[in-house]
Design goal:
Elements (H helix, E strand, L loop, with lengths): L3 H18 L5 H6 L1 H19 L3 H5 L5 H13 L6 H26 L1
Helix pairs in contact: 1-3, 1-6, 3-5
């Protein structure tokens, strides 16, 4: 069984991938680049999947919005109302850098 530390490190890896996929990319180019779209959606899906497997103890004692992260995964998987690429873009641009910082803080506390 994987530990929360391993899971957090994997989430962080996918966060860095998202930032790498969109580095030096403008929104208009992002929307028209199907490969980048798929790569980003897959990474968000993986983050949500892994977040769902974190221990309740870690999730309950953290300020990270794990429930919202898992909800993004569910929205992707079940295709509710289709995917809004502007929402995906905004999540990558605004939320992912903060998530990396929050994960680092958690890891510093538990390692």
């Amino acid at each position: 069984m994987k530990s929360d530390v391993e899971r957090l490190r994997r989430i962080k890896m996918y966060c860095y991938q998202l930032m790498d996929f969109t580095k030096h990319v403008e929104f208009e180019n992002f929307v028209s680049d199907e490969k980048t779209n798929y790569a980003c959606v897959f990474s968000l899906l993986q983050i949500g999947e892994i977040a769902n497997k974190l221990s309740n103890e870690l999730k309950d004692n953290s300020s990270v919005p794990w429930h919202a992260i898992v909800a993004v995964r569910n929205r992707i998987v079940h295709g509710y109302d289709g995917l809004n690429m502007k929402v995906i873009w905004d999540a990558i641009e605004r939320e992912i850098p903060s998530l990396i910082i929050q994960i680092d803080e958690i890891l510093n506390e538990i390692i």
